[in-house]
């Protein structure tokens, strides 16, 4: 089954069937990644450009690995050190890269909506690797896939997203994705970091993090995005850690064992303590591992191929 979309711009545009199709395809690629030779020739006639206008560790490496595991040719572009500093526009930059016979573009940009803008001007498929405070669709897919791996169907499962909801593209994509999969979602953190309109997305709001942890089966803890905050929204990081940070004492006081997630990068001792991030309840590194299979699935499905079983052997 092909996806209902030509690009992966946001989770908002995907159907639940699209998400299930991505998960089933990722299941296949995850098996490939357990083999001694973790590479298939599926996309050996395809070239993918990873265009990053904003910093990244996990997403960029994960996309590059996914593309190489699929046998694609890969070119990497960073805005720093490029002709963007000489005034070249986004469309000119991308059209010049496409002129070198590139088939697919993976883009991270600090401007919310940049991938949608680009999609109106170029023919190649675009995958959004994070746009401003808007969406980070492959992160939400790998998060939901990681929960599914641990607990099965997400229908009726309670997921708390804790931290800086206001500035987080991970939060918004997760809310869209989890809702499409039938999960119940709660957001928690300081009132100044939770958008006032968030109820309209069908999520619960709980300003007391301890109560959110008591309610949920899974807690996805998010980083404070100081780089996107242009005025103080809480007094100090120390105070934030004291009132909103997730620590071992809190988890031990719960009457159940919940799953702990974090998309990274982690600010240890602020939103989450090391004894939680590194605990057996944490699936943070499983999320990173699953990111490669999810991105392989997205790239494969957007390529329009229909020969999965033949090409992976
Ligand atoms: N989770 C995530 O997007 O991490 P990076 O910013 O390192 O890509």
Summed up:
The protein has 313 residues and is of the alpha/beta class.
Task: Throw out a few tags for this protein.
binds phosphoric acid mono(formamide)ester; single chain; 12 helices; globular; 313 residues; alpha/beta; four-stranded parallel sheet; 9 strands; five-stranded parallel sheet
Describe the structure.
By secondary structure, the protein is α/β, with parallel strands linked by helices. It contains 12 helices and 9 strands. It has helices at residues 16-34, 58-69, 90-98, 114-119, 137-151, 169-180, 209-215, 237-244, 248-252, 274-277, 284-303, 308-312; strands at residues 47-52, 73-78, 104-109, 125-131, 158-162, 184-188, 204-206, 218-221, 259-261. The strands form 2 sheets. A 5-stranded parallel beta sheet has the order 7-6-5-8-9. It has a 4-stranded parallel beta sheet with strand order 2-1-3-4, sandwiched between helices. Helix 4 links the parallel strand 3 and strand 4. The radius of gyration is 19 Å and the shape is globular. The chain binds phosphoric acid mono(formamide)ester. Phosphoric acid mono(formamide)ester binds at residues 56-59, 130, 136, 139, 263-265.
């Amino acid at each position: 089954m092909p996806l209902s979309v030509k690009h992966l711009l946001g989770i908002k545009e995907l159907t639940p069937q699209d998400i299930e199709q991505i998960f089933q395809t990722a299941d296949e690629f995850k098996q490939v990644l357990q083999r001694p030779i973790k590479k298939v020739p599926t996309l050996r006639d395809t070239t993918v450009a990873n265009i990053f206008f904003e910093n990244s560790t996990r997403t960029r490496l994960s996309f590059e690995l996914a593309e190489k595991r699929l046998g694609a040719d890969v070119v990497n572009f960073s805005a720093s050190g490029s002709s963007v500093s000489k005034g070249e526009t986004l469309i000119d930059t991308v059209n010049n890269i496409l002129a070198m016979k590139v088939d697919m573009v993976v883009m991270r940009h600090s401007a919310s909506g940049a991938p949608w803008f680009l999609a109106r001007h170029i023919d190649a498929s675009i995958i959004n690797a994070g746009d401003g405070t808007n969406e980070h669709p492959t992160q939400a897919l790998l998060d939901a896939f990681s929960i599914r791996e641990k607990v099965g169907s997400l229908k009726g499962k309670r997921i708390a997203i804790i931290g800086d909801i206001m500035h987080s593209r991970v939060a918004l994509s997760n809310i869209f994705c989890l809702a499409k999969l039938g999960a119940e979602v709660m957001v928690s953190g300081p009132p100044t970091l939770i958008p006032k309109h968030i109820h309209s997305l069908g999520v619960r709001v709980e300003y007391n993090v301890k109560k959110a942890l008591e309610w949920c089966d899974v807690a996805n803890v998010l980083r404070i995005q100081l780089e996107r905050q242009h005025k103080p929204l809480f007094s100090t990081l120390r105070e934030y850690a004291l009132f909103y940070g997730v620590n071992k004492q809190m988890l031990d006081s719960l009457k159940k064992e919940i799953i702990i997630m974090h998309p990274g990068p982690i600010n240890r001792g602020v939103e989450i303590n090391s004894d939680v991030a590194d605990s057996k309840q944490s699936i943070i590194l499983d999320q990173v591992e699953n990111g490669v299979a999810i991105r392989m699935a997205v790239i494969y499905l957007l390529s329009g191929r229909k020969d999965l079983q033949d090409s992976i052997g």
